[in-house]
Amino acid sequence: MFFITGMSTFTWILLAYVGLHIGQDYISFFKGIDLNTPVLIHHLSSGGEFIIRVRELFLIIGSLALFIEVAKAATSREFGATETLLSFVVAIIFMVMFFLVPWAQNATFLVLALMSFIDATGGFIIELNAARRDFIVS
Length: 138
Description:
single chain; mainly alpha; two-stranded antiparallel ribbon
């Protein structure tokens, strides 16, 4: 159960992003898929097209993950320091990969890294506020 509720959803996004890039060599499902591959094409009545590519899909999923993480931190009674620490570790991995890995040096990955840092700092702030309410000085 820890892998679902205890781990940051950004861990799964990071693994999916890495899998998309590294998996092309090893997993046949990922062959030919990159960040520019269209996922949804909708023809608009004005004659234009609404296109969602893999990169936009990652940003949409990242936004939903950020919402889930903040809601989980704000409502869970068992939310603890280990989850916040894991979120910071994932955020640091995002940033290190952004600076060191060539295929991660793009705007999509940077925005996901920023979302991960917002998740980590938000969890830390929520945890500090909860600890302050629990600590009573007489």
